[in-house]
Design brief:
257 residues; 8-stranded parallel barrel; 13 helices; 8 strands; 14% strand; binds phosphoenolpyruvate; triose-phosphate isomerase activity; cytoplasm
């Protein structure tokens, strides 16, 4: 993996009140050793309403896990009812924010232009965007998955410099694998993650491509983690359902360490 530290990020989606979040983070942290947390970067992505509680836990106990949000506004402030800005997330000391998750793309009409604007907003506020790309089932069956994902990468990173891109994490999340229990094979994950890295090298240079972490996401469980992460271009996992179970998520983190 050429020195890239594995990253395991748990996307809780719309689960967990702030009180439940406290319990889950405490359980998670107590089941991981310092060495394991050193070997792999572990990040939780709770709903906005739980971020303050997670911040208090993490700062108070010097726990070595990171946290972040699942979305942010493309705007820095203003009349955008219901939105949350990058500045607000930075004020809560978030390290990460997911951008362009397929559920945001499909349920909230976020296109690549919106995703690019949100990626830039995250970087403006010192947050690491986890930029998601991934094909649907029809595209996969027609064999267009690599072209689809590299085109999404191009459009989602529009306007960024090579230096900006070194501060981005990418996530390959095939839509047909998200929440379906159908995990991609290690070969499928490597094929697309490798193609994304090649595309980064073409557009931003090999040095930039070599440092960007590329995650796989889609029905990852403890049992499938080691196989998926064996791919030389797969630097970690974005985990949905399995991140809500502290024991299972800890096992995933351990397999990556
Ligand atoms: C996700 O939502 O990013 C995800 C990968 O979900 P799941 O692990 O539940 O498929």
């Amino acid at each position: 993996r050429e020195g890239r530290r594995p990253l395991i990020a748990g996307n809780w989606k719309m689960h967990m009140t702030h009180l439940e979040a406290i319990g889950l983070v405490q359980k998670l942290v107590f089941s991981l050793t310092e060495e394991e947390l050193d070997a792999a970067e572990v990040v939780v992505l709770p709903p906005f309403t739980a971020l303050r509680s997670v911040q208090t836990l993490v700062n108070g106990d010097q726990l070595a896990i990171g946290y972040g949000a699942q979305d942010l506004s493309a705007h820095d402030s203003g009349a955008y009812t219901g939105e949350v800005s990058g500045a607000m997330l930075a004020a809560l000391a978030c390290g990460f924010v997911v951008v362009g998750h397929s559920e945001r793309r499909s349920l909230h009409g976020e296109d690549d232009a919106v995703v690019a604007a949100k990626t830039q907003a995250a970087l403006r506020h010192g947050l690491t965007p986890i930029v998601c790309v991934g094909e649907g089932l029809e595209v996969r069956q027609a064999g267009g998955h690599v072209a689809h994902c590299t085109a999404q990468l191009d459009a989602s990173l529009a306007g960024l410099s090579a230096e900006d891109v070194t501060r981005v994490v990418l996530a390959y999340e095939p839509v047909w694998a998200i929440g379906t229990g159908e995990v991609a094979t290690p070969e499928d994950a490597q094929e697309v993650c490798g193609a994304l890295r090649s595309r980064l090298a073409e557009r931003f240079g090999p040095d930039t491509a070599a440092v960007v972490r590329i995650l796989y996401g889609g029905s990852v469980k403890a049992a499938s983690t080691a196989g998926i992460l064996a791919g030389p271009d797969v630097d970690g996992a974005l985990v949905g359902g399995a991140s809500l179970d502290a024991d299972e998520f800890a096992k995933i983190c351990r397999s990556a360490a």
